[in-house]
Amino acid sequence: MTLFADFVKRRSLGLWSFLLVAAPLASAGCIIVDEDRDHDGHHVHDDWDDGDDDTVPPPPADDVRRVAIDTDATLSTEPGEGVGVFVEYTEGGTWTLWTTCDTNISKVVCSFDLYASVDTASELIDLAGIEIEKTDETRLVDIGVAYFHAETGSDIDAMTFATTPGAIVRLEAHLDGAEEPRFVYWFGDGVLHEGAPSSPIDFEPTAP
User: Fold this and answer.
1) Is the bond preceding 24 in cis, omega lying within 30 degrees of 0?
2) Comparing C-alpha atoms, which of 164, 129, 1, 2 is closest to residue 78?
3) How does DSSP classify residue 30?
4) How far apart are CA 160 and CA 167, in angstroms?
5) Are strands 201-205 and 191-194 parallel, antiparallel or unpaired?
6) Cα separation of 17 and 162, whole Å?
7) Which three-class secondary structure state does DSSP give residue 28?
């Protein structure tokens, strides 16, 4: 079975308008996902362990994991074909968080609430939204803490912010009011990671 992660790939550095208008993976075809849905109607991945059986459950909330994120690695996927929270870091301290939903399949909109914060030795500045609508919001909720609310349908919503170069950024991702680390994607050590190992999760750039 082909999963949403199979259609998440590196993209070249370029304008966001190009990504939004000309989906780079249009030739990839339809995304096939599991027919199971969660309580809000979104498709869920069939390889995610929700802790309902005898397998090892996800780590407790206070066990925050730190992972590497590849500097200047970017991702792309087809808007509207799968649920995702994508994390990118650019050399010099620029972070981009962007979201997609499975609206083309589920016919519902994803409501995301993302919180990003920096370590105490770093600063977070220059917060901005990219191609967001009136239902979306970006703001600083505290010193060093950025908040992004996005109502994402068959489009892409994004937030960008600057930090001290090489800062460790902590991300907490909520979908429809519930913590959902399984939908977080990033490149680390040359590998596409699908699903965060903890919530929240700390990202450490491979280069400042």
Assistant:
1) no
2) 2
3) P
4) 15
5) unpaired
6) 20
7) helix
Question: What amino acid is encoded at 66 in this protein?
Answer: R
Residues ≥6 apart with Cβ < 8 Å to 75: 8, 9, 10, 11, 86, 88, 185, 186, 187, 192
pLDDT digits (tens, 9 = 90+) for 141-193: 999 999 999 999 999 999 999 999 999 999 999 999 999 999 999 999 999 99
CB 76 within 8 A of CB 82: no
Q: Which amino acid makes up residue 24?
A: P
**Is the predicted pLDDT of residue 9 greater than 80, yes or no?**
no
Helix extents (H) in 4-44: 16-21
45, 3 Cβ separation under 8 angstroms: yes
Rg of the chain (C-alpha set): 16
Specify the pTM: 0.76
CB contact set of 125 (below 8 Å; sequence gap of 6+): 161, 162, 163
Give the tokens for residue 165: 């170069």
The pair phi, psi for residue 38, each rounded to 5°, is -85, -175
